[in-house]
Structure formats: C-alpha cells, structure tokens
Amino acid sequence: MITTKQLYNLYLQYPVISTDTRKIAPRSLFFALKGDKFDANTFAKQAIEAGAAYAVIDNGAYQLGDRYLLVEDVLTTLQDLARHHRRQLTIPVIGLTGTNGKTTTKELINAVLSQHFKTQATQGNLNNHIGVPLTILTIDTTHEAAVIEMGANHQKEIELLCSISQPSHGLITNVGKAHLEGFGGIEGVKKGKGELYDYLASHSAENKIAFVNSDDAVLMEMANARDLQTVIYYGNNKTNSLISGIIVENAPLLTVQWTNNKTEENYTVKTQLTGAYNLSNILVAICIGTYLNLTAAEINAGIENYQPKNNRSQIVQTATNTLICDYYNANPSSMFVAIENIGKIDAKRRVLILGDMFEMGQESAAEHAAVIRKAMDTPVDERIFIGKDFTAAAEKTGDEKTNRFYLTAEDAIADLKANPIKNSTILIKGSRGMALERLVELF
Ligand SMILES: CC(=O)N[C@H]1[C@@H](OP(=O)(O)OP(=O)(O)OC[C@H]2O[C@@H](n3ccc(=O)[nH]c3=O)[C@H](O)[C@@H]2O)O[C@H](CO)[C@@H](O)[C@@H]1O[C@H](C)C(=O)N[C@@H](C)C(=O)N[C@H](CCC(=O)N[C@@H](CCC[C@@H](N)C(=O)O)C(=O)O)C(=O)O
Ligand SMILES: Nc1ncnc2c1ncn2[C@@H]1O[C@H](COP(=O)(O)OP(=O)(O)OP(=O)(O)O)[C@@H](O)[C@H]1O
Ligand SMILES: C[C@@H](N)C(=O)N[C@H](C)C(=O)O
C-alpha cells in the first residue's frame, strides 16, 4: 500500500484533487469516496479514462494497474494527505468555528486579508471532514494566508478538523443552540466548539493566537478555563480589546464605527450587511486584519466590498416590500437575534415569517415555544409561523389564536397569494429543509 509520503510526492506533481468523475480535472488525483448512493471505487477506471493522473482506491478489486493506488481507507488517506501538506506551510492559517456566523465571518476575514495577502479560503460551506481536507489541499506555495471554516454537529469533529488544518490563529464566533441533537444539548455544543481552544492551548509552544469576543461571557469563560498563550480581544470593551466598535446605523444596512485601541484612532465603515448580530463578525475580521498589520484603509475596503450571499441575511428590495432573506438556516440562537433585529429596524410595518428549526432533538418543542414567545414580545405588525413544530408548540401555548400558523409552506403560500403583504419589511427565516425561498415571489 502507498504511504502518505509517497502519495505526497505524487500530489506535488499533480496538486489538484477530484472526487467526482462528472467533474474530473485533468491530471488530478481522484479520491474514490463513498456516499449514500455510490462507492466511487467503481468509478476509478472512469476517472483515469477521463484524465485523472491517479485514482486512490480502497478496494483491491478495482486496482487495474499502477495508476490505481490502493490504501486502507480513502477518506482517512485524504485527511492524512491534507494534514501532511498543512505541516509544510508556514503561512498564517486562520481556523474558525462557532454556532452561527462561521461562513459570514470567514468571508469577511477573507475579504479583509485579500486586500493585502494572496489568501485562500474555504469555498462556500465546505467545512466538514471532507471539505476541510479538500480546502487545505488547494493551498499552494503562492498563497500568503488561509482562512479555514470548520463545522460540526457532534463531539470530536472540531478536534479532527484542527488536527488537519492546524490553525496558527483561531476563533469561535459564538456558542449557541444548534445541532442540539448531535451535540447533546448546549453544554455539548460548548464542549464541541471548545475543541478549537483546546487545540490552540495544547500547541501553545508554537505561539498559537486566539481571538476572543470580550462581550461574550460564554466565550470568555471558555477561554479563561484554558491555558491559552496569546489571546487578542475584540468587542465593546476599550480597555482590554485591540479593536472595539459599535453600530451607528442599522437602516437596514449596518454602518460601524471602530477603534484601534492601540493607536486610539477611530474609523467608520459602511457595510452591505444587515443584522446587529453581524457586529461581532465584522469586528473580528477588523481585529485579525489589524493584528496582521493591514492598514485601516485596506480593512475598510475589504469590509465595504463584502456582499452576503446565499440567503444569509440578504436584503432584497421588491416593488412593495423590503425582504430580509435569512432562510439559509435557523436555530434558536440565530432566530432570537434575527427577531430582535427586525424589532429595532426603522420601518413603517414589520412582518415575521418563521419556519421550523431542525436538528433540535428532545428540546425541539420547548425551543419552538420559546421562539413564539420571543416573537410575541417583539413589536411587529404580523407574525406568520410555518411548519409542524411551530404549529404543535402553538397548540400548547394557545398562541394560534393571535397569530397565523400553517402546517406546511404550501398552505402558507396559498393564503399569502390570496392576502398579499404590502409596504412591509419582512424577515423570512427557517431551517434549510423548510426551503422558504419558495415564498419570495409572493412579495
Ligand atoms: C462523499 C461525497 O462527496 N458526498 C457528496 C455526495 O453525496 P452522496 O451521498 O449523494 O454521494 P454519492 O453516493 O452520490 O457518491 C459517492 C461518491 O461518488 C462520486 N461519484 C458519484 C457518481 C458518479 O457518477 N461519479 C462519482 O465520482 C461522488 O462525487 C462521491 O464522491 O453528493 C452530495 C450532493 O452533491 C454532496 O452533498 C455530498 O457531499 C458530502 C455531504 C460532503 O461532506 N461534502 C463536503 C465537500 C462538504 O464539506 N460538504 C458541505 C457540508 C457541510 C455541512 O453540512 N456542515 C455542517 C456541520 C458539519 C456536519 C458534519 N458532521 C457533516 O455531516 O457534514 C454545518 O452545519 O455547517 C456542503 O456541501 O455544504
Ligand atoms: N454572530 C451571529 N450571531 C447569531 N446569528 C448569526 C450570527 N452571524 C450570522 N448569524 C445568522 O446565521 C445565518 C447563517 O450565517 P452563516 O452562514 O454565516 O453561519 P454558519 O455558522 O456558517 O452556518 P452553517 O453552520 O449552517 O454553515 C445568518 O443568515 C444569520 O441569520
Ligand atoms: C444548512 C446546515 N448547515 C444547517 O445549518 N442546518 C440546520 C439544521 C438548518 O438548516 O437550519
């Protein structure tokens, strides 16, 4: 069987990885992964015929010559190769995880660092045991910095991803209520996300840097509980933080005023982001840029140019309404801050359209009821809830009398077609599986 070092020598000659015969890059290394439907060992011959230089397989029955490299396990080999490649790199590698805002924060850091460094960053949401190694293997000798997003829905995943990405700098965006099923409750999320701080603490001899939000009591407690060598703070607190900042306008795009507390200089940046919760995402990107010696002009240019994508708090202006399209995902933590945000937005008429939250496990009923209560306490003109979990929760609390509940999106669409909403700012948020994008054409 081929060793990681031997495979690495081939990777240096053929530094592109393919995993799908429908998209084979010429002269790439094809890794035959297994999915729900296929075992890609069966596609190895096809990969070679389509132009791959070598195929990495773990079933000897498909080894048809010396361009078929047999390993024990293809996925582990991909991870080992990425881990080995990372060890050769001496550039700053910013690793981040957290419950909410990972992709937005990763994009903001990338936007800032790209003003000064040739930066490589995770594409989209490719943040798991396959996506992280694939990202690491796209870093080449021309790159000067990398930003690696790490996602998890159970314990020990971040530990594994850190062992591959070996971040020199790390941050946790926040710890909240998401993927409760796999993590086993909020304490489980804390432990699971804390694996990033554990990694930084256990490699302190290499002077790993942690960036911590000093406004976030949970993160502060988690950071203080570990032996982190270098901690750089950001947040409202001017005394301890390298960067502090406040929102000066939320209408609905954010304008932020920030201070470099080392030089005591103030700056203002107009962003294309909405949602007060994005302040900490913006501040950490500014903080990392400042720590890595970018100028304030470079930092502001990076932040100003970043436009959110893929229905992560995107503003869409229609003929009669302003939509906050936030239906990429949802969980109790991000629901609460999104509801709070629309409650504070300067608008004539405000509407909430909320879809069920997935992967909540046994806390699902209580969490859906809590979101209904939060919505009730927020000054909006109309509240619409969609999904069986919200409907079931409302039946218990009796709220279905004062608000509109629909079991399915189809039911909601039919009613909204008959009774269109006009002249409103509308927050649309729900879990990915609710696919609330189906509603947009109604407004
Ligand atoms: C293995 C693989 O690539 N899977 C992708 C595949 O899934 P499927 O099960 O359908 O695979 P198949 O059985 O069809 O195929 C197996 C392999 O065969 C190849 N092949 C197939 C046909 C053919 O003709 N030729 C072939 O070569 C094929 O390419 C496969 O390699 O297809 C799905 C649909 O496109 C993909 O979604 C699936 O990708 C998997 C899920 C994956 O992990 N991809 C990573 C690159 C990745 O990073 N994906 C992210 C997911 C991030 C995420 O959800 N993050 C969570 C937290 C992390 C949770 C973690 N525990 C987890 O479970 O992921 C978060 O909240 O942020 C993404 O896609 O966004
Ligand atoms: N700092 C934050 N605090 C709370 N909620 C946030 C924060 N940042 C973003 N969100 C919410 O999370 C949604 C998804 O943002 P983003 O994709 O950046 O998060 P993510 O952590 O990458 O999500 P996922 O784990 O599903 O990939 C946003 O549209 C917004 O509703
Ligand atoms: C989209 C995926 N990363 C995620 O966040 N899933 C939760 C359950 C959601 O869709 O809200």
From TrEMBL:
Pathway the protein acts in: Cell wall biogenesis; peptidoglycan biosynthesis
EC main group: ligase
One term of GO molecular function: ligase activity
Keyword Cytoplasm: yes
Domain Mur ligase C-terminal: start-end pairs: 312-432
Residue stretches making up the Mur ligase central domain: 97-288
Subcellular location: Cytoplasm
Regions that span the bilayer: none
Protein name (Swiss-Prot/TrEMBL): UDP-N-acetylmuramoyl-tripeptide--D-alanyl-D-alanine ligase
